[in-house]
Amino acid sequence: MATDPAQQDTTQRTLLSEGPLHPAPRSACVVVIHGEGLGRRTDIRDGALLVGRSHEADLSIQHKSVSRQHCRIWRDAAGQYRIRDLGATNATRLNEARLPAEADAPLNDGDRITVGETILKFIAQDSVEARYHEEIYQLAVHDPLTELHNRRHFCEMADKEIGRALRHGRPLALCIIDVDLFKPVNDRYGHISGDEVLRQIGALVRGHARNDDLAARIGGEEFALLLPECELEPALRLAERLREAVAAASFAPGGEPQRITISIGIATLSPERDSRPALMAAADAALYRAKSEGRNRVCVEG
Ligand SMILES: Nc1nc2c(ncn2[C@@H]2O[C@H](COP(=O)(O)OP(=O)(O)OP(=O)(O)O)[C@@H](O)[C@H]2O)c(=O)[nH]1
Asked: Cβ < 6 Å from ligand 1: which residues?
């Protein structure tokens, strides 16, 4: 019997390629490779990069071993990156050698900069390693299911935003969002279908966030939306819009159309609620009320 030669040919042919796609050139950066803020990458743009414990530093490292203004990194007119210790209590070290106070030193690709108990790595422009660190960092701060921020990163970023709002006397609101009666969805259609519902809700949460808002999945079926510069009224309006959008969305776990709703608890920053744990506890209390009052609603802790 004649056989089709195309079916017999199982040879795997190597694709002719010029190598990985080359992304646009990027600036030099420093990456935290040890200590507080592990994995964080900070680009060194046109101006100088200030590293220190100060909240105003470009790379702010909240650790007591770091001086408020610890060191500065910049690119000189000849294009050479340089570093200067700013008289830090624990002198900046470059590849383990102490930098003399107020003296400049050139930086080369791969140099290690020790700032208190944190170690940074200097990565020169457009290096493959910079992309590697970026990808690892993105994996570390995102939830793989929804691609929103994960809880650990949310807490770290929320602490910073809350600190900034308190220092500048700016408003800030937090919404905690929980899927209603999600256990029966999982039990009936299975975890994989449940995951698809969570992914869809994650996309709706992200779609309702502004650029400066912080959207995260902070628990199994729990999401958070941190709204800097946002008073209670606009936060309430946004939460209502999100609640309505979820209630109106079409979900079909296991191929069966299913109505899914969410409950939302909101709390705003105030003198009595001036920390992330206090703000989260207040939003949680409001969420609990939303659940006990019948779900598919927004409640405010005020
Ligand atoms: N598919 C899926 N399910 C999850 C995930 N994380 C948590 N869950 C499920 O989410 C459900 C949460 O159920 P409960 O906390 O009992 O609450 P609920 O049924 O949503 O009811 P209420 O919150 O009271 O409205 C449990 O069945 C968990 O197994 C996840 O990552 N994927």
From this structure: 178-183, 186, 191, 194-195, 198, 220-221, 291, 295
